[in-house]
Every structure is written in structure tokens, then in C-alpha cells.
Structure prediction request, 264 residues.
Amino acid sequence: MMYIGKYEDYALAKLIINRLSGNGVEVVAARDVEVKNLGIPKWDGSRDVNIAMVIGGDGTVLRFIHEIGNSMDAPILHIGTGRVNYLSDVSARELPQVLDKLVKGEYTIEERLTLKAAAMNFECTALNEVLVKGVDPGHLINVTVVEDGGEEIMRARMDGVIIATPTGSTAYALAAGGPVVDSRLAVKLVVPLAPFSRALVPIVHPYEIPIKVLTSEVAHILCDGIVAQRGAEIRIVPSDKKVRFVRTRQYRMYDKLFRRLFIP
Prediction:
């Protein structure tokens, strides 16, 4: 399956399709826009997809997961053409060797944890983070975070709060002052967003323990910055869904962190 983030990447997608077709691999489109620009049939859901090839930046991967990923369980090969490409396995210049490995089945699958957020008449799953934020950007709200049936872990006035997975620890949570978490750990982050008290600090919390976020007024709820709803009580729990990535080499998290995030 092919999913493209921006128009400039369609030329690269055509090269991939030609090479895979020459090796007897059928490529289908995720959406009508790929059908139009690539001339390949659209996936109708009747057959299993072995690999979903997503070309673009990390944001393109998140859009794919929320638009298409919930209806299928194929692992994702992220071909990074964006600015950060933190999730990617391969760049465009490395494609010939990688495509040969795919055809031969020389790859592994890495699983990433996700979180499920539920409010009244609303539910979403996040690979990166669940954001609970005040509707008025110039107005602080009271936020309380409690363990489900347990201890209160945070209470303060702030713009909002980020509940992040290890994958999301290098995204919005990092920009808000949270720590980087090794993707092999089963934890989540609770990161206050612009709290009134500077004494308030991010918390690393066990992944398997559900929490509730209570706000003094109706707030925005966003999963990965894409799925949005409003509510004043949000329950966040471990999700059964794992997002799977194709790896044709060892995924070196700290090398990516150094090269992608700390070098201008």
C-alpha cells in the first residue's frame, strides 16, 4: 500500500512502484489521490496488506495512522522525506537496497505503544500524545490528574497537559520541557503545559495504570494533534493497539536523537 504526504514525493513513489512491480509485487493505493496521481488500484479492504509504505515526514505517518491505520494492521515502512523523520527507517537515497530487502523478506517488525483517550461520546488512540488544552489560548485552566481509583498526581493552573508515550516523548512533550524516554520502556509522560507554578515538573508514570484528567471547564482534547474533541473529564488508558514499523536495520534511537534533534 502507498500513502504519500506531499505532491513532490509522487515522482519517488512512481520509481518505487516500477521497481516493486518488476519483482512481481502488487502495489495498491491508500486513497483516491494516490489512485489519481500514481495510476494504481485502490485498496478495497478485501485482501491483506503486507506493508504500508508511507512517504513523507513524521506528521504524514501520524495522518496515515488516523486516516487508514485503524482499518488495517499492516506494518509501516516510513520513507522519510520530511524535516525530522524520527520514525523513518530509510531515506530516499537508500531506497534501492531497502526495496531489495523487502522483496527478499529481510526485515523485522518493531512495535510501539499507544494510549487510548476516552471522554463522553468520544474515543481516540494516540501514538505520540494526548493533549488536553484550554479552549481560550489566553486563559489558564485548572487541571487535575489522578490515577484511576488512586492517588492524585498533579493539580495546578496551566494552559493544559500532555500525556505522551515513549514515542511521543521526542515530539510536543519534549518541546514543553519533558524528558526523552527510551522507546523500549513501558511508561507514559505527564507534562504540564505552561503551568502558573514553575515548581511543577513532568512526571514519568507507569504505562499500565489508567489516569483521569479533570479540567475546570470544557477543554480541547487532541490525539496526535489530529483527532480533536471537547470535554472536561478524560480517561487515558493503555491501548491494545500497537503501531508496527518495518525495520530493515537496527533502529538506533539515540543516534537519531542526536542527528535529527540537536544538530541545526
In short: The radius of gyration is 20 Å. The longest helix spans residues 10-21.
